[in-house]
Inverse folding.
């Protein structure tokens, strides 16, 4: 046997037979004392390029200059310290000594510079977020000059897509070379990632010898894999299985409030949604309590806005309610009337397309609920399920609404979401929202260093979003995972950024 382990080959129930047979052959070589775990998730990875995908950071291959802890505070990672002396336009980062890439090459400021230059070259979203004008490297000192003062730059460098990699290595999509505790040894897009320990890791050897990341969008299949021992850690098992998993002494569950929000996007390219009354009408069609209680099986809180209620930049909201009658009133204000069972304006029935995606299975159900509610008012909604919603909405305008999910405050700060969702060129502004009052608040926020003033400006911005219903925020889902009791030192990350660390261990049988 290659090793004693908790689980390696995924069963036929996971519809990954090919991966299983490959794993079975791998199991026969090696020694019995090596440690390995299998992590099964609901998010597929088509590439390991860290500048385009989060998996390389989640799997411990690549690391960022700055990281975030569970208290949402910034911490040094590959940069041991940083400072600015001109209100955030010029930043100096000190890169750790004695860090090597997994090919043995030293990490210095020049390597970081080249990685960041590649990052903004391949990712328009990161180019927009980082606003880099110039980068200088001198041994372990990295100087970044931004196009304008950017007081929150260190928090932007927490983003997994800013991970540092050796740009001289060419097979970045399948085998990126990073500085983390694990390096990839095999990758099948959308299916499987195999990892081995990097013994030269700067922060000490990992406790595991090997790890396997696999994917299945079927939540029930993920649950079965854990129960059968074919997976050791399962991210987002079936919601309805949480209580039964808690009752199993061989399984541990982690359920924590997440930083994620499920929301409804409006495509402002469609003239229909340029009308605030239409957006407000759809907001009244959302039954948030039913979504939290039924679709989310109680594993969510209703959302009045993008951020959790205890954040210092969350305003007092007018409580959101579900009301067909109030929805109808807003459609009336927008010039719609009922004719022959259809909601009509200028002789044209209101017929829309909503996009959704399956690897968060509650989102299609939310789309179906909205479709049912809209039908009562004579609105026809076609549901289209897409495989990669980010790619679809970035390239196409033939959609009207979309159910979407994202971490709105991954760094404990409002600026990421506000810039991404409401500024021109933002990574999650496919509906081309353009509100001058909101843009002004966000621009002022971006230029402000003092935390109290930043929170005040962010709160004003969120109030504008709420008043205009630029998005409809539905629920804040819990983050949950389950794992075999023999897994040690593993913790569910609020940010969802860090999954496989050097400290994760297993008890050998």
């Amino acid at each position: 046997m290659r090793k004693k382990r908790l689980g390696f080959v995924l069963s036929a129930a996971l519809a990954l037979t090919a991966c299983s047979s490959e794993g079975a052959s791998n199991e026969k070589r090696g020694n019995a004392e090596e440690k390995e775990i299998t992590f099964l998730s609901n998010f597929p990875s088509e590439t390991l390029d860290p500048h385009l995908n989060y998996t390389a950071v989640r799997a411990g291959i690549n690391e960022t200059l700055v990281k975030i802890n569970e208290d949402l505070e910034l911490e040094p990672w590959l940069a041991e310290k940083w400072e600015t002396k001109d209100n955030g336009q010029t930043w100096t980062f000190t890169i750790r000594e004695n860090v090597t890439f997994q090919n043995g090459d030293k990490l210095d400021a020049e390597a970081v510079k080249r990685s960041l230059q590649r990052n903004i070259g391949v990712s328009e979203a990161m180019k927009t977020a980082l606003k880099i004008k110039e980068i200088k490297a001198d041994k372990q000192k990295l100087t970044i000059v931004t196009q304008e003062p950017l007081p929150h730059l260190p928090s932007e460098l927490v983003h997994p897509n800013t991970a540092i990699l050796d740009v001289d290595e060419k097979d970045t999509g399948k085998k990126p070379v990073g500085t983390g505790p694990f390096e990839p040894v095999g990758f099948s897009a959308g299916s499987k990632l195999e990892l081995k320990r990097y013994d030269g890791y700067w922060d000490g050897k990992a406790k595991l010898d090997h790890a396997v990341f696999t994917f299945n969008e079927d939540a029930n299949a993920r649950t079965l894999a854990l129960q059968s021992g074919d997976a050791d850690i399962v991210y987002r098992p079936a919601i309805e299985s949480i209580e039964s998993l808690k009752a199993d002494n061989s399984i541990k569950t982690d359920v924590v409030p997440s930083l994620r929000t499920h929301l409804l996007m409006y495509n402002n390219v469609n003239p229909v949604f340029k009308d605030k009354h239409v957006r407000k009408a759809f907001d009244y069609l959302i039954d948030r309590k039913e979504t939290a209680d039924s679709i989310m099986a109680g594993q969510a809180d209703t959302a009045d806005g993008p951020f959790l209620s205890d954040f210092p930049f969350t305003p007092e909201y007018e409580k959101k309610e579900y009301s067909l009658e109030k929805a109808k009133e807003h459609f009336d204000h927008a010039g719609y009337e009922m004719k022959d069972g259809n909601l009509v304006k200028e002789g044209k029935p209101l017929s829309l397309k909503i996009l959704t995606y399956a690897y968060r299975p509650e989102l299609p159900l939310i789309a179906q609920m909205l479709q049912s509610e809209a039908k009562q008012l004579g609105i026809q909604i076609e549901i289209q399920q897409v495989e990669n919603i980010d790619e679809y909405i970035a390239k196409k305008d033939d959609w009207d609404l979309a159910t979407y999910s994202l971490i709105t405050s991954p760094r404990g700060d409002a600026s990421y979401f506000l810039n991404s969702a409401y500024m021109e060129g933002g990574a999650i502004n496919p509906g081309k929202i353009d509100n001058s009052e909101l843009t002004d608040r966000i621009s002022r926020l971006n230029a402000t260093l003092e935390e109290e003033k930043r929170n005040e400006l962010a709160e004003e911005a969120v109030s504008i979003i709420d008043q205009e219903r630029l998005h409809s925020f539905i629920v804040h889902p819990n983050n949950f995972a389950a794992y075999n009791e023999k897994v040690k030192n593993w913790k569910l990350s609020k940010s969802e950024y860090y999954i496989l660390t050097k400290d994760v261990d297993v008890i050998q049988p």
Remarks:
- The chain has three domains: 1-57+178-250+485-509, 63-164, 260-478.
- The chain has a mean pLDDT of 91.
- The longest strand covers residues 471-484.
